[in-house]
Amino acid sequence: MSGMIPDNGRVLVTGVAGFIGSHLTDRLLEMGTEVVGYDNLSSGKMEFLQGAMKSERFRLIEGDVLDPTALKEAMKGIDTVFHLAANPDVRLGESDSRIHFRQNVEATQNVLEAMRELGVKNMVFTSTSTVYGDAEVIPTPESYGPTIPISLYGASKLASEAMISGFCHTYDMNAVIYRFANVVGPRSNHGVTFDFVNKLRKDPKKLVILGDGRQKKSYTHVFDTIDAIIFGAENGKERVEIFNMGSEDYIDVVTVANIVTDVMGLEDVEYEFTGGVDGGRGWKGDVRFMQLSIEKLKKMGWRPKYSSAESVRMTAQSIISEV
Predict the structure, then answer these.
(1) Going by DSSP bridges, is the β-strand pair 216-217/251-252 parallel, antiparallel, or unpaired?
(2) CA geometry: angle 298, 299, 303, nearest 5 deg
(3) What angle separates helix 19-30 from helix 222-235, to the nearest 10 degrees?
(4) What gap in Å lies between CA 45 and CA 19, rounded to an integer?
(5) CA geometry: angle at 169 spanning 166 and 174, to 5°?
(6) Please, which residues have CB within 8 angstroms of residue 95's CB and are 6 or more apart in sequence?
(7) pLDDT tens, 52-71?
């Protein structure tokens, strides 16, 4: 398997109006690829597609991945599916046990079934570092196991990965699966950097930090993320290729807070820690320590341009400038 981005073909991007989906679409259009975007606009934003809408190679279809008929119609004539539509809010699982099953597992099943019926052979799927759960090996390689997710979000993504693998081996499809670290950058509308900026806008003297502040994670800039998606889709070799994608380091939550307050020009901000749950986690299902090994992609020739701290700083700057 190689070369999932056809020179003269057409790709479908689900979740096209989302944070990562819109950046991916911009890059695919720059490459000369014809893109059909599919989104129900429940969380995605039309403003993220301003550039794409100007291209004659882009077509937007407003539809839901939970609607098999509309999805199949949108997929006609497609060579590769970039399946990004999902609910990315890890914390939601604690209050609603069905949302990640429906929007991640059932949605992925619908995409795969439409591909099978139409004979579409190639999929690119965005998964997550949370499939590893509390990994005992850090940096964590793709071969780490057993994978024991501690959130319903991580479980739903791992289930989706398993479905993709099963479909690929049963119906002669190919897939590239990316397990992302925390992706940040322009257009991000959730996550710790986004939350900190908004909290400090409301109260520039005090910042409430979930957990004990010692949670330590890897943050990767969306520009690096898109580079990796394109690189892996073009260079994957296996029927089901799995790549970790992240930065080459990890930083704690207090460091993120320090960067955000510095970017906002704030001094003497009081940090208030909630203490967290289950030994300092920010919420149920929060993985306290996460850094992915990206040696597999690096050996193939890709590496990130930005560190975790640089990615967070650039993101804070972009969030502030977007207002």
Answers:
(1) antiparallel
(2) 15
(3) 60
(4) 9
(5) 100
(6) none
(7) 999 999 999 999 999 999 99
Which tens digits make up the pLDDT trace of 22-61?
A: 999 999 999 999 999 999 999 899 999 999 999 999 999 9
Domain 10-183+220-245 has CATH 3.40.50.720: yes
Domain-wise residue ranges, the chain: 10-183+220-245, 185-218+249-289+306-321
Q: Which two tokens stand for residue 284?
A: 């149920």
Q: How far apart are the first and last CA of the chain?
A: 44
- Residue 200 tokens, joined: 């400090």
- Shared fold status for 10-183+220-245 and 185-218+249-289+306-321: no
Whether cis (ω within 30° of 0) applies to the bond prior to 6 is: no
In angstroms, what is the C-alpha Rg of the chain?
A: 19
CA distance 298 to 250: 17
Calpha distance 85→143 (Å, rounded): 26
For residues 85 and 247, give the distance between their C-alpha atoms in angstroms, rounded to a whole number.
Answer: 23
Find the helix or strand (DSSP H, E) in which 169 lies: helix 152-171
Lowest mean pLDDT among 184-188, 192-196, 274-278: 274-278
- Identify the pLDDT of residue 41: 95
Question: Is 185-218+249-289+306-321 a domain of CATH 3.40.50.150?
Answer: no
Tell me the pLDDT tens digit for each residue of 228-271: 999 999 999 999 999 999 999 999 999 999 999 999 999 999 99
